[in-house]
Structure formats: C-alpha cells, structure tokens
C-alpha cells in the first residue's frame, strides 16, 4: 500500500483520519466511496466523500495515516495534452503539491502513456515546485533547459534512441558597423576583462527574445553610444544591411556563438556613452581603426571590417530585411536576402 521514496513513507490514499475524528457518527465504509471518472482522452480519478448525504470531491492524492486500513484504488493521472509528435506536454499548474501524490500520479501517467505508445514527455517545473525535481529525476526524467521562471525536464518512453530535440545550443549576437562620410568608424572601448579589453571595436551585444536582427543592431549602437538613426523612426528601411555573420563554437558555457554584423548610417555625430558597460566611445579614422594590433592578428575580425568597407564603397551587397508573412504563425517576419 505504501511506497518508500528517499527515505520517506508515501501512500496513494486520502487522509480521512482527521475527518473521522470530527465525524464520530460516520464509520469509514459509510463515509468514503470511490468513483472512476473520464475526462478528455484520458481516464481521470477523483476521490468522493459522502457525508450526511452531501458529496465532496477532492482532486489529488494525499498521505493516509498508516493506522487506517482502506481498500486500494488507482491514482489519478497528471493533466496533459498531446503534442504534434505523439508526445505529451504536462500542465505545470496542475501538478500535485505533495511529493507522494506527485510520484504516484507520475508513475500511473507514464505507465498509461507507454500503453498508448506515446514518446516524448515534457515536464515544466515552476520555482515553487522545485522539490518535485529530484522525484522526477529518480523516475527517469532528464534536465533539458532552464529559463527564468521554470526548469524543463524530459523523458523518452520508447526503448530506443531519444529523438527529442536538444536544448538551445547557440547564442546570437549583433554588431553595428557605423561609418560616416569622413570614413570615420563609430567605435567603443568596453569595460571588460576579456581578450578585447582595451581595444577599440564597433558596438556589439546580444539579441533579445523576439527581436529582429537589424532592430537589435540599432538598439545596441544606440544604447552604447547614444547615436541616433533615422531607421529607428520607421518599421522598415533598406538602409540597414546585414553584411555577414560569423559562427564559432564552444564559447560561452560551451555554446556556439553567431554574430550578425549590420551596416548602419548615422544621422549625427553626437555621442553619449553608457558608462555602465562602455569605457569610452568616439569616431575613429578607418585606417587607425584597422591598424590596431588586435585586428592585425585576428584574421576573422579583419575580414569582417574589410567586407563592411567594401559595402560602404558600394563594392558589396549585403542582405536586406524584407517583411513577409510566415506560414509558421501567419504573422509578418523578416526574410534577409540580397537583391
């Protein structure tokens, strides 16, 4: 009747002991009855308590005092929906709050999904449910990824190689190459102990969630230098070109890193630095910029600058963002290509 988990005694029965103490006139057989319910595609179980002709139904499974002997019954399943790959996505808001209820429902659900030939199971754990993580791991789940507000676990049911996609493995950066009609490049010197410390470089940063590449480039340059672009006033403009991108591996936290470099045209020469992350910013002559020892030794960075200079001299065409409707979500998205 009970299961030993992590040194604690768990049972899949509702605790009626305290209720019995308050209702001396009602014996256990007369007080508790069990009904089997059906909901959506799955069979769902509830525990019904009849007292004085009134029906009370409680979802969930709680600990039963070991002093009381009761008939066994099947635990309820976890609320879940099917995904398009014959997998299962568990609703995190419906997870039982107690450990024994969770393990009982999880085991029953996994057994049921296996009988239905389901494959991947996705389990999102919210911060307030963190104590359920060790239980899920013990039941065969693995860490997939974490974001602010949740931890995602997965489980592959079939006895075959797992086909679930891996966790996010790339970080996306943007850079803004800004050059004026005097062949001066807008450069910054960052406050960081990295390999480019003390080097004058063009503004770079990471793209935000659901942010377009060219929008991120404009934002980063504006945040770091205060430079103003006409492009920020309109939803789309061909004056932003994605010139190229570079792809390196095993960088931050062993992730791959992709950097998109955009060509921007300034409206003014005024500079206001962000002193939280930028040590200094200025307009630097192109020859002085590329003559720094860092770029002499770094062949990839030097090639990036060469391509941007060719674009400035109209000897190279980069990719322009064009708004088109995507079948994925029916919304406007950007397709980057060269005319």
UniProtKB/TrEMBL annotation:
<protein>
    <recommendedName>
        <fullName>Nudix hydrolase domain-containing protein</fullName>
    </recommendedName>
</protein>
<dbReference type="InterPro" id="IPR020084">
    <property type="entry name" value="NUDIX_hydrolase_CS"/>
</dbReference>
<dbReference type="InterPro" id="IPR040618">
    <property type="entry name" value="Pre-Nudix"/>
</dbReference>
<keyword id="KW-0378">Hydrolase</keyword>
<keyword id="KW-0479">Metal-binding</keyword>
<feature type="domain" description="Nudix hydrolase">
    <location>
        <begin position="169"/>
        <end position="306"/>
    </location>
</feature>
<dbReference type="InterPro" id="IPR000086">
    <property type="entry name" value="NUDIX_hydrolase_dom"/>
</dbReference>
<comment type="similarity">
    <text>Belongs to the Nudix hydrolase family.</text>
</comment>
<dbReference type="Pfam" id="PF00293">
    <property type="entry name" value="NUDIX"/>
</dbReference>
<dbReference type="GO" id="GO:0047631">
    <property type="term" value="F:ADP-ribose diphosphatase activity"/>
</dbReference>
<dbReference type="GO" id="GO:0046872">
    <property type="term" value="F:metal ion binding"/>
</dbReference>
<dbReference type="GO" id="GO:0051287">
    <property type="term" value="F:NAD binding"/>
</dbReference>
<dbReference type="InterPro" id="IPR003293">
    <property type="entry name" value="Nudix_hydrolase6-like"/>
</dbReference>
<dbReference type="GO" id="GO:0035529">
    <property type="term" value="F:NADH pyrophosphatase activity"/>
</dbReference>
<dbReference type="InterPro" id="IPR015797">
    <property type="entry name" value="NUDIX_hydrolase-like_dom_sf"/>
</dbReference>
<dbReference type="Pfam" id="PF18290">
    <property type="entry name" value="Nudix_hydro"/>
</dbReference>
């Amino acid at each position: 009747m009970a299961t030993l988990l992590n040194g604690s005694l768990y049972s899949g029965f509702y605790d009626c002991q305290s209720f019995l103490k308050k209702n001396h006139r009602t014996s256990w057989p007369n007080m508790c009855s069990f009904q089997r319910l059906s909901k959506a595609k799955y069979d769902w179980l509830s525990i019904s308590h009849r007292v004085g002709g009134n029906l009370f139904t409680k979802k969930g499974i709680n600990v039963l005092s070991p002093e009381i002997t009761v008939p066994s019954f099947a635990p309820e399943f976890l609320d879940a929906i099917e995904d398009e790959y014959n997998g299962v996505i568990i609703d995190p808001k419906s997870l039982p709050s107690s450990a024994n209820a969770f393990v009982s429902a999880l085991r029953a659900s996994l057994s049921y999904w296996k009988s239905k030939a389901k494959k991947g199971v996705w389990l999102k754990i919210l911060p307030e449910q963190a104590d359920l993580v060790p239980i899920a791991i013990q039941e065969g789940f693995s860490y997939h990824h974490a974001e602010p507000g949740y931890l995602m676990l997965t489980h592959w049911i079939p006895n075959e190689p797992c086909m679930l996609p891996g966790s996010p493995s790339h970080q996306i950066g943007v850079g803004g190459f800004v050059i004026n009609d005097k062949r001066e490049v807008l450069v910054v010197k960052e406050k960081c102990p990295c390999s480019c410390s003390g080097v004058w470089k063009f503004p770079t940063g990471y793209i935000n969630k659901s942010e377009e590449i060219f929008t991120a480039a404009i934002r980063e340059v504006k945040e770091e230098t205060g430079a103003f672009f006409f492009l920020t006033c309109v939803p789309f403009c061909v004056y932003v070109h994605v010139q190229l991108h570079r792809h390196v591996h095993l960088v931050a936290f062993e992730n791959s890193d992709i950097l998109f470099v955009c060509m921007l045209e300034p409206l003014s020469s005024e500079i206001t630095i962000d002193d939280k992350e930028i040590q200094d910013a200025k307009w630097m002559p192109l020859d002085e910029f590329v003559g720094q020892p860092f770029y002499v030794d770094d062949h990839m960075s030097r090639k990036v600058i060469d391509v941007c200079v060719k674009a400035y001299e109209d000897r190279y065409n980069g990719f322009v963002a064009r708004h088109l409707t995507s079948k994925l979500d029916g919304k406007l998205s950007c397709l980057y290509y060269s005319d």
